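Office hours follow-up: a student asked to see two folded examples consecutively, so here they are.
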Amino acid sequence: MRVQHERRLIVVGLSILAVACTRVELLTSDPFPPQKPELPCTTSGDCSMDVKVRIASDESCEVTTEYKTVRVAPKETPDMKWSIDDSLDNKKKYDYQFINLPTASPPVHGIEILNNRGGVFTYPDYDGGRKKYKWKNNHQSPMPASPFDYEVNVERSLKGASNWMPCKRIDPRIINE
């Protein structure tokens, strides 16, 4: 009896160790690089940013932006551009694109400007395919730092397939001064 009891303890102990090792692996998946705090945009300057995508250990698709906030100086009217960067997807088994569901209710596009008061942002469009998206910022008059939250809507599919699934949505911010 004593030998069987010791064997059970060893088997149970190895099972707990295996579960603990698996849990550690799930918790240590590569994190996104830290977001840069702010992108200053001007009419003459570049106002482009990356949207980074990756697959988490549970196979869900995660998205983040390169910058937490985009800041536009008074009377600047830049073309704001977002590009999908899949360099963090080390599995390389998925394709990514901005969502385009114009007939959905409500419509869903790659970049959705929330509370677009007075039509400050116009001409939304996919820029050279569905891996890039742009908006025109018609910021004409100085205003108290006016924030505009926006949604980043990306979807993924197995390479060569057409079974597109949405990634987790994020909501960064644009501030017009």
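And the second, which I mentioned at the end of office hours:
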Amino acid sequence: MEYFYLLFLLPPELVNIIYNINLKDKAVSSITRFYKNRYQCKYNMKYLIRYTLFMGDDISDDYIKTLQFILKNFYNLPKIFSRYFFKNMLSLLSSKLMNIYNFISLEDIDNYYLTHRLTKCIKIWFKFCMKINCKISFYTINHLSPEMINYKDYARNIKNKNFNNMIYAPKILNIQPNSFIYTGEAYEYLNFKLYTIENFH
């Protein structure tokens, strides 16, 4: 439609040339954008895996930005990053985040920035769980008795999306309803995945 008005001003041959040039420019722009996004996804995924594997008692701002980027571009990621990959990544990350949560609570650490980044990271963790529609399992305290309750449900159904009432790190349930991905298993899987990406992709 935008070229229709040009026909009143310019010869049809010239309008056709303008149309073809514009079409090529759009194609080049789309291809460039696709490969740029592909490169950014690969770079961020490598950073995500490496940082998650070796995370200590701190969370960097870059790590949170990486999580946010991957969440935003989730459906544009290469197929090698499957739902099972994210189950392993979230399993290991859950353990790491709970370690930091306990470190702050038990050591009585007064660090606003670390607490803020941890809270942010836990919220993103839940968003990823909802994105891949996975079930999680965790133990919480029954306030009416000293017993612990094992709670299992889809992440989207959990009201309080934080670790405050959880005794241990929440587990990601596997395909079988009563089995979950162990932290050691997730570590080995991600370590191998990182090696594969760095050497074969």
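Two things to take away from it. The CA atoms of residues 101 and 164 lie 9 Å apart. The chain has one domain: 10-200.
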